[in-house]
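Hi U.,

Before I forget, here's the chain from the pilot set. I'm dumping it here mostly so it's searchable later in email.
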Amino acid sequence: MTEKIILFDGVCNFCNFWVNVILANDKRKIFKFAPLQSDTGKNLLLKFNLSTEEFSSFILIDGDRFYKKSTAALLVAKDLRGLFRILYPLIIFPNFIRDFFYDIIAKNRYRIFGKRDTCRIPTEEELSRFI
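Structure:
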């Protein structure tokens, strides 16, 4: 299985919560992480002609392809262990329906869950999973 990269909003508490969940449930260690605001994140965004100013979605990079919003979330869930895998069948719903709900959460995430002043700093144990 190839390594996959998750670009996430490094100052978003909700996003960081999900990074922790993924780290805990990715026993095969196929996911690497980079904040969207980091140099690595911005370079990857540029590689795929994505905005380096808009951070309302996390991005899953799998080889030469990228996925955003609910599609990215469901593809990540598919590769995790445990109950998260049961979310993947939601992929059958059209993007516009799934992303409607994703966008509501994304638009309100700072107000509901808060925001950090700086991007997440990985712990010593997590360092190898961040690029």
